[in-house]
Amino acid sequence: MNQKELAILRKIKPCKSEKETVEEFVTKLLEVAKIVAKPFYAYPQIVGSISKDTWLSNDHDVDLFIVFRKKVSREKLEEHGLLIGSAICEDMKGIYDIKYAEHPYVRVKVKNFEIDIVPCYETGRGDKIISAVDRSPHHTQYIKEKLVGYGVDHARLFKYFCKQIDVYGADAKHNGLSGYLCELLVLNYGTFANTMKGLSKLNFAELIDLENQVTEKEAKKRFTDALVVIDPVDKNRNVGSPISPQNFLRLKLEAKKYLKTGKFPKFKKPVRNMLIKKLKDKRGTNFIGIKFTPPEMIPENLYPQIRKLSKRIANYLKEYDFSVVRYLEWTDETNIAYLIFEVENKLLSKLKKQEGPSIFSKEIDNFLRKYLDDEYKPYIEDNKFFVGSKRKFLNIETVLKHFLKENRKEIPERISEKKIKLMKEEEIVEIVNKNKEFNYHLVRKYFEV
Prior knowledge:
- A hairpin with a 2-residue loop joins strand 7 and strand 8.
- The protein starts with a helix and ends with a helix.
- The chain is elongated.
- It has 4 domains: about 1-135, 2-Layer Sandwich (Beta Polymerase, domain 2); about 145-265, CCA tRNA nucleotidyltransferase, domain 2 (Poly(a)-polymerase, middle domain); about 275-345 and about 395-445, Alpha-Beta Plaits, CATH 3.30.70; about 350-390, Alpha-Beta Plaits.
- It has 17 helices and 15 strands.
- By secondary structure, the chain is α+β, with helices and mostly antiparallel strands.
- Strands 1-2-5-4-3 form a 5-stranded mixed β-sheet, with helices on both faces.
- About 45% of the residues lie in helices and about 20% in strands.
- It has helices spanning about 5-10, 15-35, 50, 75-90, 135-145, 150-165, 180-190, 190-200, 215-220, 245-260, 275-285, 300-320, 365-370, 395-405, 415, 425-435, 435-445; strands at about 45, 60-70, 95-100, 105-110, 115-120, 205-210, 230, 235-240, 285-290, 325-330, 335-345, 350-360, 380, 385-390, 420-425.
């Protein structure tokens, strides 16, 4: 590690007293959890960054898994998991919420600690998993065995780097790197500096397989993700699948930038006044959008549905000849969701040029029968027939209203139950000016890789 990296490490690495505080809390938590879980023939296990000693200072998130025997039904695992979680919370004098991933779990807050209490099945390494979280204890064990000595500090640096460039988090909102993936990449390259060098040269979909479990040919058949890192404890899983192509590119370019400048990136949330108006003026484009109250569902389901709707609307606009430059979405997950579409034009001509058959085609007679009686006759260019065809929609607001009214089946069911309102350009300008988080989201999309 060079002096700059050591300086960053001193800032982000937990000091001795903080470590002791966390260790004392975790010891007490395990004692309580062991007593509560015993009547259910289950036992507690700490997984995640605290267990692997790759956590960052002031990041006191604890992953407590309650491990059940395989013969317990899925229904009982969920039921008993929630009972154990709420009982632990009561004993620890905290407050809790029930969260949902593949199955429900309990999130507990005790002072400055946040504890996810997650039920899972006991499996051996290489066994077929029953639920997705069953791998987590094996992930923890693998990293603890392989990432030793100063390796944990190099992992800390890389995690911090990913957070600073806003690509950390494998959830549906962030589409970034998980802590486990960060650790695997450091294991693969050896040090933080080498990880930067490796990522700066890494191509899309290039294979990283620490245990040499699959061939490149097999990986290409099985995975179509921007980053392919085979899970050392499950060769059929790509740990890199959550990262979006855009975030992979961002990571690669930021690694190049770091190698060139030697400067650690600083996380910032820039906003721009009158952003939409300035984009419109500089790019000569137009904006339109919709807004609705997001349905009550876990973020892992909400974001894919919002993105799916955004893409469907963009394709619908394109179908009726409105050229979509970009489409973007944002939600606070509770009160509001915005979908905005940047288009070349709001208004279209009444007629469009429609291509017909080649003059050598057998379909000429059918084509002429259909169009020869029109006011404007078919014509030939470069040995192809063309005709002026009337458009169904001339105004983008009309086509968007038509989609929302007549194509409800194209809208994800839970969203279609909500009142969806059209947003005109003036309203979008005002909303983006007022909502700093939405503003930052758009600034990053437009002005950052």
